[in-house]
Prior knowledge:
Number of helices: 22
Oligomer: single chain
Strand order of the largest sheet: 2-1-5-4-3
Distance between the termini: 122 Å
Number of strands: 22
Amino acid sequence: MSETVALAQPDFKRLFEASASLYIVLNPECKVLAVSDAYAAAAKLPRESILGRNFFELFPQANDPETKRALQKIVKTKKADPLTIKIYDSQNPDSPEIKYWGIMHTPVLDNEGEVEYIIRRAEDMTDMVVQQNESRNVQQERDLLFSHSIDLMAVVGSDGYFKRVNPAFERVLGFTPYEMYAKPVVEFLHRDDRTKTAEGIGILAKGQARLGSINRYMCKDGTYRTFAWNSNPLGEKFYTVGRDITELVEAKQKIQDLNEQLQRKNEELEKKVEQRALELAESHSQVLQLQKLNAIGRLAGGIAHDFNNILGVISLYSDLIETNPENKAKIPDYIKNIKAATVSATALTRQLLIFSRKQIVQSQVINANDKISNLEKMLRRLIGENIQVELKLSQDLKNIKIDPSQFEQIILNLVVNSRDAMPRGGKLTIETKMTALDDDKTNYLIPVKAGNYVCVSIMDSGEGMDATTLSKVFEPFFTTKDPTKGTGLGLSTTFGIVQQNEGTLWAYSEPKRGTIFKIYLPVSDEKLETAAAGTEVAKGEILQGTETVLLVEDSESLNRGFVSVLEAHGYKVFSASNGTEALQVSRKYKDVKIDLILTDMVMPGMSGLELADQIKKERPNARVLFMSGYANETFEDRGPASLQEYEFLQKPFGVSELLLKIKSVMKAN
């Protein structure tokens, strides 16, 4: 037998050597007779070092009994062997590599039918083997998950029958797989869920996924359990996973039932709290009114004295005008004195209203010094002659924004408290100054924003309080006084008013060393509203008007006076003495535009607010301006929105104040 393969055709030899497949030709003794370029490259050996050598000497890794038996079998049987997979290690410690090779041996027979050559073909099947192994591993993992999952997993056909179910079905529902395969899916469902589930199967059959669908499956014992399903279609089947949410649904239902019970209890409690709050509010209101009446009683003597003086001035100069009409030169002075007395009466009346009426809160920019100075005379009369009063008012005090009557109530409540702490007399000091509160200072105060504040201090030399008493001083109904003399609401009311105006109230006291209260109210950058400005404007033509006014006033003298003032300043006036008459006038002149309804708030029969509500339905564009000598519950019952909807003017007021207010109302949107 020749030592090398003699290929008759040179072209065939080139094709063999250049083949991309790995070929090597052996004789029956396993000597290498020919090799392809691809095999030599894979072996990383030059062709010359391969040819003529023993195959097993060249490739020790192939020197295994299995390969030897395969070659011997080919020589004996003269038939090719099947493809076998062999694993070869690169034997390189620096870059170890495992390769999977597909090996096939094919015999070439001579003329006598004996094996002359053995063609060994090798294919690198590493990628295929790795992929097969990975697929096998993935399938094994899937089978493990499918078998051991606590969730229900199933394959369902488009015909609506189960094709495969995991063991969780039997563990949870009690049916064997064969029992599950025997009936359509919908027959295992709660009757109320069948239509919805059948529709879902129809959607899956169209190739659309279904996520989060919920239904109830019947167990073998007749009970039902609830599942949440995620399903995806693939071909004629869809794959679905269901999680048992029975306990979750039951817990959710229990929570819902408990919430409904709690809601009912809350509603019942809210009604009780509301009822109790109304009772407390009524009691509180009654107590406050008693406090005000007590204060009025203490002030009555001094007020009567002042009012008698005021009335004396008015009576005196009215008589001079009436009895000396020929002395026309002095009449302006007489009128000036009468007006001055009227202003004093107005101020005194408004101070009384602080106590006697349920006040409408109307915040405005004020100066604390001015208000305290105006109160000084009343305060001295209120606390008695055995207490010395000293005012220390800072000259650089900035403005604050608060309802003036509320501010006066704060001062009066604290002054009365200090007076009661000095039954044998003493000294009361009221001091004002500017204070900047930073984060450090606000830490020991009731929570308040850092910034600039006006601080009003009220200090007395009275009996003082210990720490325990001081800690409760702002609590409602807490009092150290005899029950017949104190309600425990004065300081709590004061504290509430201060907080309502974004301020805070601080107190310090020691037994036998007196008490100091400090009121902190935030500085306002808005311009101070002064009466002087109104008077100055009153002299100009701005007070003239051309609008039509429906005046409603039950006081005949005031009605005539208002008509005279308004007509003298260019207004056209329709007047009425009550609400019913005003509605009649409005309807009588329905074709005439009425620009403003100027009405008293409290009148017999129909209140001003009721009149405004009715007349606004017929004349929605008409403005409304209320006026009253006091404010009862009319606005309070309607809530704060009433003050935003309508304007209010407190009686008594002057001509300029009335005309300016009308101008303001008519200019408003």
